[in-house]
Specification:
75% helix, 38 helices, mainly alpha
Length: 809
């Protein structure tokens, strides 16, 4: 081995000297040169390996041990190059590795020709260069292991220590990779107890030692070379990471490594090396390797050790991703093996061992990383917990809210928090979800718009599934959950600009939600308590919300009043309604409040509660007088008011007369005579129900006067009654009340009054018929024709009463 490395061709050093430029060009130029020259350098190196391998094989065929050592050493000398990138070096290594397989077979044959493995082991150590010497030593070592001439543990220890002679990162990594591949057979022999002097512990120690040295070499690459090339070196390191990870794969495949050995020896040693290297790339990769390669049972029983190790990692290491990977692995195990895994999780308190250290770790990482950790633990709790599921979910939410309360929530962290809130929403019923006292605390970490999105999701789920919220306690919790869409933002809190359309959509959902708040057993008292709470919470929502939500509360309480037989409680509920409608009127929403007062008037009258009905009716009059200024709205409101009073049956005479007189008074005050006419003759029905025929006649005469006044004014607007149509309508009213008069009582409406109107209408319609036709004229004439047929029908039915009435045809 003291001769020159080659007798044929140039040496590797001579070729590299020619390849290196004499002066240092700019960085960009060097990068271009390196990219262009890599293939050429690799081709030259492969050619040299092929050439020396040819001479080596010829020497093997000649059984010339001396030349075999010489040419194999020269071939392996090509692996000393520093010109190739890791990727290209790997191709060169694989080319040399293929040739080494034949060399190993040659050494195996030499044992049968009088050479012992120990002799060969000594001979190869005389090679001139360290790297070729060590490759040859490892190759002969494989033969030595199979020979059983020496304890396997001693050989493995010697080899792993001898490889420490190569400290160049790339060359050292590939040398130790070769050692890993060659030593697999020795490890198998130890596991099979072929060598009585070697134990599984020795095999594990060998792999751990090799792993430690390889990781150090891998990390060392980061610090070699100029700073400007650090990004390039990191890319190259990523290309080599699997070489280091193979050691962990070997450990995981060793059948004799049980969970006790893993927990007491293997995992602590691996974590020690990972933590001490203080390199984020190595830590991210190797921690993920641990998660992926070792069995689930190992992780369950050592989760506390692993999570504590995560807390000691470099600050730039993605601890959240590592923990999430572990938790996801455990969650998948639960799904695949639910019975076996559930018992293990409970026995080893996996949830608690994940949550407690994770809380400490969250103090050292950013809001997004912390949110990711809690999201993963929450998923795990949902998948793995049974009877304690809700309690554990609440624990996670509580810890999450506490950890992030003072943190700056990034947009990415906010999205993760939203997913945390969505997970229990998708996994449990709403009534169960309302037991989570920490849920609103997590919601408060979000920006208002995202809080609203979560609240809307909750409401939509309740409505979609038809879930009933059965008691006041759960309703209070629900309002805490959705407070962002029920209440106005507090002073000092940021809120988005008010979007009235968006608020209306939200409040329509909330209003529908009220119908789901009720006692499941139909208890009026419990349902009323729920609606009282709802009114209180809605009252904090400001005018833009109250006008949409409170009316639903009013109608639901009215339904309770209708079916309740307890008069005292009915009065209490009606007083409650009065207050609720007052709030709507103050928004201001006078027309909506007016209609609600009329609804309450009808229900109170139905229950025979005259005082309450009168209060609601007077409140409606007050709103009509002071809150509805628009003329058209007044007309419609008065129609509803008169209809409401006409439907009431339980008012006393004085109260009813006062209300009817007030309605008549406001009818007379309407601006348009046509509106006056219609409203006043409608009021006649109010007095008719109480037998006040004199006032009925007064109303009819007043209506006729208004109609005649309307005749002298401008033409009616589209959709309104014209004077002739008003006369026909009044005629119909006269006929109605005349027909209702009983025989023998003093007649307030005489047949002469009806005849006068018949003649008036006949004259007006004759003029209308002779004029130019039109849609309005046709409508009036048809109305008149129908009225005549009605009169003729009355004459046939009651000839004695209508005999004096003559018709012009």
């Amino acid at each position: 081995f003291e001769e020159r490395e080659r007798e044929h061709g140039e040496s590797r050093g001579q070729r590299e000297a020619k390849m290196e430029p004499s002066t240092s060009p700019p960085v960009s130029t060097m990068d271009q040169i390196m990219a262009a020259e890599q293939e050429k350098w690799l081709a030259d190196a492969k050619a040299a390996v092929k050439q020396q391998a040819f001479y080596m094989k010829r020497a093997i065929d000649e059984d010339n041990l001396r030349d075999v050592f010489k040419y194999s050493s020269a071939m392996l000398g090509e692996l000393r190059t520093s010109l190739l990138s890791p990727q290209k070096y790997y191709e060169l290594y694989m080319r040399a590795f293929d040739e080494l397989r034949q060399l190993e077979m040659f050494f195996e044959e030499q044992r049968g020709k009088g050479h012992t493995a120990s002799e060969l082991y000594e001979l190869v150590q005389h090679a001139g260069n360290v790297l070729p010497r060590l490759y040859l030593l490892v190759t002969v070592g494989a033969v030595f292991i199979r020979s059983h001439e020496s304890p396997i543990k001693a050989l493995l220890k010697d080899l792993v220590e001898m490889c420490g002679g190569i400290q160049h990162p790339v060359r050292g990594l590939f040398l130790r990779t070769y050692l890993t591949q060659i030593s697999r057979e020795g490890l198998t022999l130890i596991e099979n107890k072929v060598d009585e002097e070697s134990t599984t512990g020795d095999a594990v120690e060998f792999v751990l030692q090799n792993f430690t040295e390889m990781n150090k070499l891998w990390v060392r690459m980061k610090h070699q070379g100029p700073v400007r090339e650090r990004a390039k070196r990191e890319r190259e390191r990523k290309e080599l990471r699997d070489l280091v990870g193979k050691n962990l794969v070997i450990l995981s495949s060793m059948e004799e490594v049980d969970v006790e050995m893993y927990g007491e020896i293997v995992l602590p040693r691996i974590l020690e090396q990972i933590v001490n290297c203080k390199d984020e790339l190595a830590q991210n990769y190797l921690m993920d390797c641990i998660i992926q390669v070792f069995p689930d049972e190992f992780h369950i029983k050592t989760v506390e050790t692993f999570v504590e190790g995560c807390g000691n990692l470099h600050q730039d290491t993605n601890v959240a991703q590592i923990l999430c990977g572990l938790i996801k692995r455990l969650g998948n195990y639960m799904e695949n093996e639910p019975e076996a895994s559930s018992a293990l999780f409970e026995e080893h308190q996996t949830f608690e061992k994940l949550l407690e250290p994770a809380t400490k770790i969250s103090d050292k990482v950013g809001s997004q990383a912390s949110a990711m950790i809690y999201s993963a633990i929450l998923d795990f709790a949902v998948k793995t917990s049974k009877g304690e599921a809700l309690g554990r979910v609440d624990q996670v939410l509580s810890q999450c809210a506490g950890a992030l309360r003072t943190a700056e929530i990034t947009s990415q962290a906010a999205r993760t928090l939203k997913s945390i809130l969505t997970t229990p929403l998708d996994s449990y019923t709403i009534t169960d979800l309302l037991e989570l006292g920490s849920y609103p605390s997590v919601m408060q970490l979000l920006q208002p718009r995202m809080q609203k999105a979560v609240a809307v999701d909750i409401v939509e789920k309740i409505l979609k599934k038809g879930t009933v919220i059965p008691d006041a306690k759960k309703v209070a919790s629900l309002f805490d959950f959705i407070s962002t869409i029920v209440e106005d933002a507090k002073a000092g809190e940021d809120d988005d600009e008010v979007d009235e359309e968006e608020i209306e959509e939200e409040q329509n959902l909330v209003a529908r939600l009220v119908h789901q708040m009720r006692s499941p057993d139909g208890s009026v008292e419990e349902s009323f308590a729920i609606l009282e709470l709802a009114k209180d919470r809605f009252g904090r929502g400001g005018p833009l919300r109250v006008k949409h939500t409170l009316p639903t509360v009013v109608f639901d309480v009215l339904q309770l009043v209708k079916r309740d037989e307890d008069e005292e409680r009915c009065v209490k509920m009606l007083k409650f309604l009065h207050g609720a409608i007052d709030m709507i009127a103050e928004v201001p929403e006078p027309e909506k409040a007016f209609k609600l007062y009329l609804e309450c008037t009808l229900v109170a009258d139905l229950k025979g509660l005259e005082t309450s009905a009168y209060d609601f009716a007077t409140a409606a009059f007050d709103i009509y007088e002071n809150g509805i200024p628009d003329q058209k709205a007044q007309v419609e409101a008065l129609k509803m008011l008169i209809g409401c009073l006409a439907s009431c049956e339980n008012f006393g005479e004085d109260n009813y007369d006062a209300l009817s007189s007030a309605a008549t008074k406001w009818s007379i005050k309407l601006l348009k005579k046509s509106d006056q006419c219609i409203s006043v003759f409608s009021c006649a029905h109010l007095f008719s129900t109480k037998g006040s025929s004199e006032k009925v006649l007064v109303c009819l005469k007043r209506a006729l006067t208004a109609a005649k006044q309307a005749q002298g004014m401008a033409k009616s607007s589209r959709g309104e009654m014209g004077p002739v149509e008003l006369f026909i309508a009044i005629l119909n009213k006269y006929l109605y009340f005349f027909d209702k008069q009983e025989e023998g009582e003093e007649a307030q409406i005489k047949v002469e009054d009806v005849q006068m109107l018949v003649d008036l209408v006949s004259n007006e319609t004759s003029s209308l018929a002779s004029a130019a036709g039109g849609e309005a004229s046709d409508r009036v004439l048809k109305f008149y024709s129908n009225t005549l047929r009605h009169i003729m029908a009355l004459k046939e039915k009651k000839p004695e009463k209508y005999s004096a009435l003559s018709l012009k045809t």
